[in-house]
Write a structure and sequence with these properties.
There is one protein chain. The radius of gyration is 18 Å and the shape is globular. About 75% of the residues lie in helices and about 5% in strands. Helix 3 runs parallel beside helix 9 and helix 6 runs antiparallel to helix 7. The chain is built from 10 helices and 2 strands; from the N terminus they run H-H-H-H-H-E-E-H-H-H-H-H.
Amino acid sequence: MAVLIDHHAALVYAGFILLGFGTGVYGTLIGAGGGFIMMPVLLLLFPDRSPDELTAISLAVVFFNALSGSEQYAIMKRIDYKSGLIFAAATIPGAVIGALNTAVVARPFFNLIFGILLLAVAVFLLLQPTIKENINSPTPHLGRFTVSRHLVEAHGTASDYSFNAALGVVMSFFVGYISSFLGIGGGIIHVPALVYLLNFPIHIATATSHFILAIMALTGTMVHLWSGAWVHGVNETLSLSLGVLLGAPLGAHFSGRIKGHWIIRGLAAALGLVGVRILFPFFAG
């Protein structure tokens, strides 16, 4: 019996590793950290666990994914470190508050919020016009908080872009809160915001978002560790994290081979499908 139990456990953890691998590949490819894939699966696999336990697992996995992906993006020289550090600092207070608030939300209400957010972001992305792969000329002056960047990637592609730093800071605070509260990492919100609101080229947005995610997810994970929520999912977290560490470099590699508008469309399709699945019980019941 013990052998059967051990064999079953091994299959379960192997499944978690495969899930982590797929999450690492796709999450790094689109700069979203993979939490939007991880959380719906965790919600379906563990219907009896509280939201704070599941978000603790998801955020820890997002951290390892973002850390591994950021290393690859750093080699490609696609990360806007100056902007990333400013935005990451803005996400920290929001991430702390969001992680603490998750513990007081009932599971059905959490599912409802999660599903609606995914559908809203998917619709937003599908309604947007096709974006440019790179922005090679600064945008018009955006006010007193305008910041301009010039970034040269490892293979020689140069990008020039300008954005409103104040808008980016405010936006990042709310991204930190929502992502930590829902355990999704925040990339599904941050990447579109960097592209459409702050004028970032898509591949720089995905790389910079991953860098921000690493700092933000670590903050949320530390809060969950302090509160005790993360302790109950250590085995699952380790298996999933192993998978994302293997998959994240592959996602970063493929990111340079796929057109930006396909990354956005793929993200929108995935979010829409996941949102419908999460909300299905509310309409069916």
